[in-house]
């Protein structure tokens, strides 16, 4: 097989890159080790920055997003028995939209297939070869046959555990990472949200987040120990803990319902530099992971491939190499801005040490400053809805 850009991974980054290249007349093939059903239903992030919404709509895949996405113009902070709304749209002129990552993936897959795009699901044993030459090759196995995809460039959009980053020779990449001493227990519940906007709660028992996926489905999170056993959390215990951490405002209560899914996810920060080696360009979770507190993961991936789409177009249309050469440095400016914001939100809202009264007082002081200072609230809002340029 022959194409111009070989893309490994059919998550939001790989699919969006393929779509953007198609709009510029550039051919691509997307290889994905999982089935279409799997990638269209795996639960991930659900908050889109204004820039991500604009990108999806501008590229022609935002029709369902406009119709079904939940636009939020603020968030609520709960701490020390107080509740404060941060009016993000009023402070920045921009907002966020709640729309599940799996829905973004469904829209992009539908758009690529409708346009005759090539997405090869269940392509196993991917191996990258010749990345330091003009003719990289992606080796894979599909339907019991060994195949090769020859291309001009390879885009590694296959996540933290993918093969792309591992194809870079040892000593080329530098890794920066931090593991946090807690995890998130996340649940999806068949319960109508009791709020119109997300609630971030700092509580003596630990952090909690009240989010949603639709007018009928709530998405909720609890801070737990990193080695917590999900079997130790029956539904009633989860609801009891959510009530304790969220029902701190008189007269307000959350809506309960059957829990459809539950899982525990560790919290970590991870960045690899550079994001390019020779003809391999890395994007999304393959090169950076953030704690979900700042809702930046999918948004960073989409920002990466927006840069890559322009860079490949400049190379094919005009023979320019400057955007490809500058891709890593340009993308990393946004990545590190998002890393700082995610770390700050995480540190401000979670119990870092459960019995540290000094840390608790600092967190309360910081939260109250955000709630009462327009300048501080504007800074949080600018980062949360997504900085236009970094």
Automatic annotation (TrEMBL):
<keyword id="KW-0560">Oxidoreductase</keyword>
<protein>
    <submittedName>
        <fullName>4-hydroxybenzoate 3-monooxygenase</fullName>
        <ecNumber>1.14.13.2</ecNumber>
    </submittedName>
</protein>
<dbReference type="Pfam" id="PF01494">
    <property type="entry name" value="FAD_binding_3"/>
</dbReference>
<dbReference type="GO" id="GO:0018659">
    <property type="term" value="F:4-hydroxybenzoate 3-monooxygenase activity"/>
</dbReference>
<dbReference type="InterPro" id="IPR002938">
    <property type="entry name" value="FAD-bd"/>
</dbReference>
<dbReference type="InterPro" id="IPR036188">
    <property type="entry name" value="FAD/NAD-bd_sf"/>
</dbReference>
<keyword id="KW-0274">FAD</keyword>
<feature type="domain" description="FAD-binding">
    <location>
        <begin position="2"/>
        <end position="341"/>
    </location>
</feature>
<keyword id="KW-0503">Monooxygenase</keyword>
<keyword id="KW-0285">Flavoprotein</keyword>
<dbReference type="GO" id="GO:0071949">
    <property type="term" value="F:FAD binding"/>
</dbReference>
<dbReference type="InterPro" id="IPR012733">
    <property type="entry name" value="HB_mOase"/>
</dbReference>
<dbReference type="InterPro" id="IPR050641">
    <property type="entry name" value="RIFMO-like"/>
</dbReference>
<dbReference type="GO" id="GO:0043639">
    <property type="term" value="P:benzoate catabolic process"/>
</dbReference>
